Amino acid sequence: MEIDISQVAKRVVRDVLQLKESDCLHVEAWEHTLPLTKEIIKEARRSGADTLLTLDSDETWYDALNNLPEDWLGEASTMQQAVRRAATASVYIGGPTDPEGMKDIPRDRWRANSRGAVATYKPFEDEPIPSVDIGLARVTEKRARTYGFDHGEWYSSVLSSISVDPRVIKERGNALALSLKGAVQGHLIAQGGTDFEFEFHGGDPAVFTGEVRPIKGKKFSYFASLPSGSISIALKKGSGDGKVVSTSPIPQLGDFIHGLTWEFSGGRITGVGAQEHLDSFETLWTEEKRKEGADQLGYLTIGLNSEARYGFLENEIVEGAVILGIGNNDWIGGENDCDYGFDIAFRDATLKVDGETLIDGGQLRPG
Fold it and tell me: 90, exposed or middle or buried, with CB in 10 Å at 0-12, 13-18, 19+?
């Protein structure tokens, strides 16, 4: 399956962001994405928008993570903040072509880099701008080789996922929203030992179709990703009891976490474990973050994209997937505004909401 990058660019500019003459678009790209990035810049300028391109690469990014002082990594970027103040919309199209080098970066340097990102963007969290993340940028041959993916199959899956009509996703999401709106109790069961009961926060669910349609006071409405297709809802603070076990490997910091396990009591994680590479999870799940709420139950997501496939980096949008997240849920109307989030996706889950089965063994129930 081939890609017409000019059509993808038109979709980003015209349909996803709906740019106009008064807009200032910041495109944050990586060297390997330049063909698509240039098309987005050209299309944005045709719409009348002003544009700024910032460019990174594996060489410059890994050099910073490995060699620059931790104090530099941990400080707010005045340049990034200046760009953010000027921008009215943003596109992120990047990430390393090869995550292999992530394995050798010391924990403290990852943590410093995380502090710097929070310090840079925290002042703007209550003033979101329309933004889109283009996941196609991460579908590289080097990344596929490192993770053991078939590059051709992955590429085809992502392109097919992007092609799904947002109206179809919206229709599926709105049907599920009727069951989730006003829901009180949930029960998640999955292979590997997952048996987890929780309560809903009480707010409205949000459907992610791959389009940005800002609603004042709704942070989630300012962000989209391509590919997309999911519905999310905040979970109640203090709820959540049982065990959650991942049966799919989770890529993190260049490695795969196998068998990640969370034990919950009263809405907080009381025990963690993994078969392999637990350190890749604990590197950023620090005691400081846990004190801020990173150990709290956060949100539930259900995948809606019929063309997405398991086994790559897009498990959370596969139709019928159930995702349980910890940490921040402020973006979806919850109470937790900590600067951390992590989730586990289940491909074979059964999800019951107030006694009604919404997902049965990984399949959306009709209705």
Answer: buried
